[in-house]
Specification:
alpha/beta, Rossmann fold, 7-stranded parallel beta sheet, 9 helices, 7 strands, 38% helix
């Protein structure tokens, strides 16, 4: 299967490279705003340099592929409309048009937990504990917490429109990704340790413990994320589906049964198994 990955050198894209690039099942092409030099850890891969807001560039890159994993976006909840509009609205339209024009069968869309972020605002920090009984699934009302979350909800809806209105793409998978971090921070203490390193707070502070509690609930390990992408690319039974992107965390508030049953996702990691950062 020939697979085009947009936003390939970000946190999620590099997880795909780390865990799936060498699979004999796939031939990956990476679409990114910039390439990496050969001596970079992610240098030397086949890369098409372009921007997802450039319709012609993305359509051209999609030619000859069977599937697209669309990860590129503006990813921050504090962005205003001018930040999110072109990458997240125009960008997903261009990606779906590229998939339609070149008759790609499968389209995997990186959505976000922030599509449902108002629930967290209502119930945090209790929602980070085992005592909370809130579990959100694909049937619950969408409640974005930001322009970012709202544009990802738009991307989900636009994907449903395309799969029902056009012959291609034939299958669309929207993954509501929770917390996937770069490799050095791929553990439930990752956000907290990053906060210490950049001077935001001290280890052991209330803010540190808050970051740990949240990430123990929202962590999706890089290997679990890559496995979920693999499940989507292998699947042939879903026309359109929304799935939680999270590891099997004891304190998670996002449902996993839907992903387990529909696409065979079987996450291996649980944030509760960690009692401190790696030494």
């Amino acid at each position: 299967m020939n697979v085009l990955v947009t936003g390939s050198y970000g946190r999620c894209g590099t997880a795909v490279i780390d865990h799936l690039h060498d699979s004999a099942e796939y031939d990956f092409t990476y679409f990114n705003r910039s390439d990496r030099p050969d001596d970079h850890p992610y240098g030397g891969y086949e890369t098409v340099v372009g921007d997802i807001t450039d319709h012609d560039a993305l359509v051209s890159a999609a030619e000859g592929h069977d599937a697209m994993v669309h990860l590129a976006a503006y990813p921050y909840t504090d962005g205003d409309w001018s930040d999110v509009f072109e990458p997240n609205v125009v960008g997903v339209y261009n990606a779906l048009e590229a998939a339609r024009e070149h008759e790609l069968d499968t389209f995997v869309f990186a959505s976000t937990n922030h599509v449902m972020g108002q629930y967290e605002r209502d119930f945090a920090p209790e929602i980070y504990t085992a005592e909370s009984d809130l579990v959100l699934d694909h049937t619950d009302p969408v409640r974005p917490d930001s322009f970012y979350g709202a544009t990802k909800a738009f991307g989900e809806d636009l994907g449903r429109y395309y799969v029902e209105e056009y012959e291609h793409p034939r299958q669309i998978y929207a993954l509501r990704i929770c917390t996937v971090n770069a490799a050095p921070y791929d553990h439930p203490y990752g956000d907290a340790e990053a906060g210490v390193e950049n001077g935001t707070f001290e280890r052991g502070s209330e803010a540190y413990e808050h970051a740990v509690a949240r990430m123990k609930a929202t962590w999706q390990s890089r290997r679990d994320f890559a496995q979920q992408i693999n499940c989507c690319l292998r699947d042939d039974g879903v026309e359109f589906g929304v799935f939680s992107g999270v590891s099997d965390n004891r304190n998670r508030w996002f449902d996993l049964e839907h992903a387990r049953v529909r696409i065979g996702y079987a996450p291996q990691d649980d944030g509760a198994a960690w009692h401190g950062p790696p030494e």
